[in-house]
Amino acid sequence: MEREVRVRFAPSPTGPLHIGGVRTALYNYLFARRHGGKMILRIEDTDSQRFVPGAEDYINEALAWLGIGIDEGVREGGEYGPYKQSERRDIYRRYVRQLIDAGRAYYAFDTPAELEAKRAEVANFQYDASTRMQMRNSLALPADEVKALLDAGTPYVVRFLIEPGRDVEVNDLIRGKVVIKSDILDDKVLYKSADDLPTYHLANIVDDHLMLVSHVIRGEEWLPSAPLHVLLYEAFGWADTMPQFVHLPLLLKPDGKGKLSKRDGDRLGFPVFPLEWHDPASGNISSGYRESGYLPEAVVNFLALLGWNPGDDTEVMSMDELISKFAFDHCSKSGAKFAFEKGKWFNHTYLQNISDEALAELFKPVLRARGVNPDDFSDSYITRAVSLVKSRVNFVSELWDNARFFFVAPEDYDPKAVKKRWSADTPAIMDELVALLEAQPSFDASTLEPVVLGWISDKGYHLGNVMNAFRLAVVGECKGPHMFDITELMGCDATVSRIRKAVERIRIPE
Ligand code: GLU
Description:
alpha/beta, Glutamyl-tRNA Synthetase, domain 2
C-alpha cells in the first residue's frame, strides 16, 4: 500500500529563514498538497548555543505571508507533538538509551581539551574504529570505571558506533542511488549530558520516525548527513519505514560560481530573506521581500522555478497550478542560479494581474511613509492613480516615483525640460489654457482632449511645446501617463492651480 505522504519542514531557529529555506518549505508544501498529504513544521532547537530569539516567530510569519500552510506544528498542534524539539527531551533520552542497550552507541568522557590534544597529535584525527579504543569511552574503559564515572555525574556524550567496511546506500528521488563507504564516517555525537539534549542527527531521525514522515525534502547541504541517517534508521530497526530522501539543488549566486550568500544580495541589491529581519544582537536590519514590495504570489512563483519546471515552458503559475504540476522528476540535480531579475519580472507580472483596488491598498502604506495621508483622497482616486502608472513598475514602492504628482503638487520642475519646453511666450499660452480649462463643463479625457488639441491647432501653436509645458506644470517633468487621463483624475481645480503655480515659479532660462 502507498504510504500516506507526510513531509516536514524542520528549520533551526538560529536566525532569519534564508530564501533557500523558504524554497525548501515551498517544495515540501507543494509535494504534500499534490498528494493530499500533511505538512509538518518542526522546530529543531536542540542547539541552545545558536538559538536566536524571534527566529521562530519569524519563520511562522514568513510562511504565513507566502501562503505556505502548515497542518501540524507548534501553533497548529497535532497528534505527534510536541513539535518543538526542546520539549521532547524525554523521548530522546529513551531512544538514546535504546541504542546504548543494543550496543549501537556508547558513552564518551573525553573532555574538549583531551580531544584537542588528540587532534594535535594525530593528523586528520577522526573519532572512529581506528581511534576509539585509544579514547576515554565505555568501549575502551573497564566497566567498573565507566560506572564510577557515570555515578559521579561526569559529563559525557553518547556517540554512534559506526562499523567500518560497509557500503551505505542513500536513495534520493532527485539524485538516484548514492553509495558511500562507512569508513569515512566518524562516530557522531548523538547526545550531550551537559545540556541533556540530543544533537541534530538523533533528534531528526527519531522525530521523522515518530512523526511518520514519508519524505525528507531538504537542501543539498544535508546530503552528507544522509548516510549517517540511513545507519541510524537501521540501528533503531526502522529501515523498513525509512523516509524517502529528496535533496534539493543548491541556490547559486546570480553571477559566477558558488552558493548564494547574503553578501550577494547586498552586492547586487536583492533581499535574501522573505521578511525584513532586525538582528537582536547587532541591531542590523536585513531587507526582506515583503518590505521590498514583492507580492507573496510572485515570490512563490519565482522560487518554485528555481530548481524545478513543470515540464514545459509555462512560467506564471498560481499556487494551485504549482500544486497540480509539482513532481520531483522535473527537479534538477545541478544548482539553480538565483536569477533575481527574473524575480522582479514575476513581481511586475503579478502586479499587473491583481486588481487596482488591491494595488491601491498596498500603495497606502507607501503614501503614508512619504508623508501623504491616504485618507485625504478617495479610494477611487488612489485606485485610478495606481492603475495609470502600474505598467511602469516592478514594485509597489516604485508606484511612488510614478504617481507622486497625483498626491503632491510639484515644487520643482525638471530643469532640462524647462530649458527645452518653457520659453518667453509660454506663460501667456498657459494663461490661455487656464481660461480654456475653466470654461469646460467636463474634464473627461475623451471630451477634453479634442477641445485642447483643437485650441492648439486653431492658434497655430506648436503641439509638442504646449503639451509638454502643460505636462511640466502639472507633473513637474515631461513623463507620465496620458495627459488627459491625468487631468480627468485630478479635475479642473487642481489642474488649473498647478498651471498657475508653474507660471509664477518657472523662470525662463537666460
Ligand atoms: N534543522 C535542519 C535545518 O535547519 C533540518 C535539516 C533537515 O531537514 O533534516 O535545516
